[in-house]
User: What shape does this take?
Amino acid sequence: MHLETDRLILRDWQDGDRDPFAEMGQDPEVMRFFPSLLSRRESDALIDKAMSKQAADGFCFVPVEEKATGRFLGFTGLSRPSYPKSLPFDPCVEIGWRFARSAWGKGYASEAAREWLRFGFATLGLDEVVAFTTRTNLKSQAVMQRIGMITRPEDDFPHPMLASDHPLVEHVLYRLQKSSWSAAEPTPTR
Assistant: This one.
């Protein structure tokens, strides 16, 4: 997998990504809207799972590298969720991202996500892409809105992998239909 934007390279996982990814998983601010920090073993297992999904589906969450420096910024991509308990809107393809704190506030998540939407709709022929996060993760929801996704209160759901009294259980679902994305995409000029 190799996609590019003006500032970013979206590429396959490499062994050199394991250390910076593990550092992200230990940053309390990066992991604020997740149930817990990630141990090194859990972090490596997530990379291994992403690589397996890439082999099976042809896409997954992949590293985002800054073109100018080669620096690992985080990850983004498309994925078919595979929780032990089904989501209320399964089957689906989700778009997601997680960035190191040093990469926040620079528009990288939106830039990378737009390229993944293009890939999902134009290359994979998907009809819909979803995104979800805990109700309190307003920064991630802002990215979802910037890339054209919409939410409806009736789509909100309790995440099935969290206890009903967990502070992060309430999630919002955002959706983007191919027809809405197509309408929002600029027409190429010749």
In short: Helices lie at 18-25, 40-57, 108-123, 138-146, 178-184. The first helix runs from residue 18 to 25. The beta strands are 2-4, 8-11, 61-66, 72-79, 94-99, 128-134, 150-151, 157-158, 170-177. The first strand starts at residue 2 and ends at 4.
